[in-house]
Amino acid sequence: MILLVVGAGYVGLVTGTCLAEMGHQVICLDIDERKVEQLKNGIIPIYEPGLEEMVKRNLKAKRLSFTTNYAASVQAALVCFLAVETPETPEGGANLHCIKTAAASIAEHMNGYKVIVNKSTVPVGTAKEVKTIVKEILKKRNAPYDFDVISNPEFLKEGAAVNDFMKPERVIIGADNTEAAAIMKEIYSPFMLTYERLIITDIASAEMIKYAANAMLATRISFMNELSRICEENGADINEVRKGIGSDKRIGINFLYPGVGYGGSCLPKDIKALRAQSRVLGVDTPLLDAVDLVNHTQIIHFFTKISTYYQEKGLRDKTFAIWGLAFKPDTDDMRAAPSITIIQELLNQGAKLRLYDPVAMDAARKVLLPHDHLAWCHNEYEAAAQSDGIILLTEWKQFRFLDFAAILKSMKGNAFFDGRNQYNPHQMKVKGFDYLSVGRTPVYSHQDLPEDLIQRYKESEI
Ligand SMILES: NC(=O)c1ccc[n+]([C@@H]2O[C@H](COP(=O)([O-])OP(=O)(O)OC[C@H]3O[C@@H](n4cnc5c(N)ncnc54)[C@H](O)[C@@H]3O)[C@@H](O)[C@H]2O)c1
């Protein structure tokens, strides 16, 4: 059975490569000729740990190939996965242009029965739309081939995508007939050897499951961000609160981190798309509206923390190191990264910025317009040199243990704005920083620590 994956981006490339790794014969198709040329030569256009070796290995074994040719690849394949982008429309809905175009291209070249699989995140009802598009084109072509449309949403996390795909927590298959579901079951069977994680359901529920999962994840983040703002005022420590509530099995410890708000290519647009579809259906979504609003205001709240710190002299001509640009660690994805908003706000106020990210520098250069006040640095130390303050926006592991004495010595000021709560506030104060984080009381280098805290600090290195 030959599998075609349409769209060789973060999801399509990982899907195609992992399916090939499991022994399937896979063709990855993209309309981006440059990308396809690079991939044919084993050059990976994105940063995703573990992917490059896997692509090279499967290219060499001839289980994986790349093309721009719809006719030949559709005709060769039995199953066509759609993994194209579904970005946000100006009204906040899901833009299905690429899905529809790709589905139409498949229909134009079908030469027999095919299974068309929606792997992209698409609103409930999209499989039906795809079915209609394909049917109409086949009718025009006078080519009465049979086909099925399946919903198979993807749950991989960028930065851990290969592992997530190879060891899925679940695989959702939305199907309206058992034969097509059986084909999907066979494709995923090598991933289910340890135990069965395939959930076969109806198409609408499968489409909804993806949005429901992202809505739940976004809700947890906004919930923690809202709590963090309360903690900043009442003296509680959000990290302690996180551990306290996370130990309750009904709540769980994962995905409870406060920060500068969620970003990336999924959560922001998917929450908006679910809200947009609900509006069309006449369903109010006060909870999802609040999740979105809290996320939007969280980055502004963090910016206000910085501007308030400098309220006497203002931000004009202040220099900041920005540590981390990608929306999260282990990826170069800059889509809807909170760093973009912070950088723009700081530039608007006349600040000068020294940027550094371990892997997202090239991607960031494409997103941030050239500006006299932006300097691109080679590492976190270079970025911090001569700065008034450091702003940490992405929790890259390499930022965890650094020579803070050397860093502080090279700086003009001593402010540290930590959007990801990477350090212990009291340790940072002892090291000489004014340290402002999320949901925790700020500490200032000139402040005396309360005696009991000094004692606890000495005893436990908290
Ligand atoms: N990125 C993630 O972490 C993630 C996780 C789960 C689900 N998703 C969903 O998966 C889908 C794809 O996301 P992505 O991040 O991989 O997008 P992406 O932008 O990285 O990749 C999409 C690719 O599709 C190609 N493409 C567009 N139209 C095409 C067409 N007509 N024919 C062939 N190729 C075409 C583009 O050139 C691009 O290479 C989206 O719906 C997204 O919401 C993404």
Q: How would you portray this structure in words?
A:
With 462 residues, the chain is of the alpha/beta class. The chain folds into two domains: 2-201, Rossmann fold (3-Layer(aba) Sandwich); 203-462, Rossmann fold (3-Layer(aba) Sandwich). It has 18 helices and 14 strands. It has helices at residues 10-21, 33-40, 51-60, 70-76, 97-109, 126-141, 161-166, 178-188, 203-234, 238-246, 267-281, 286-309, 338-348, 361-367, 380-384, 404-410, 425-430, 451-460, and strands at residues 2-6, 25-29, 64-67, 79-82, 114-118, 147-151, 171-174, 198-201, 319-323, 352-356, 374-376, 389-392, 415-418, 434-436. The strands form three sheets. Strands 3-2-1-4-5-6 form a six-stranded parallel β-sheet, with helices on both faces. It has a six-stranded parallel β-sheet with strand order 11-10-9-12-13-14. It has a two-stranded parallel sheet with strand order 7-8. Helix 11 (267-281) packs antiparallel against helix 12. The longest helix has 32 residues, at 203-234. It is elongated. The termini are far apart. It binds nicotinamide-adenine-dinucleotide. The site of nicotinamide-adenine-dinucleotide (NAD) has 26 residues, from helix 1 and helix 5.
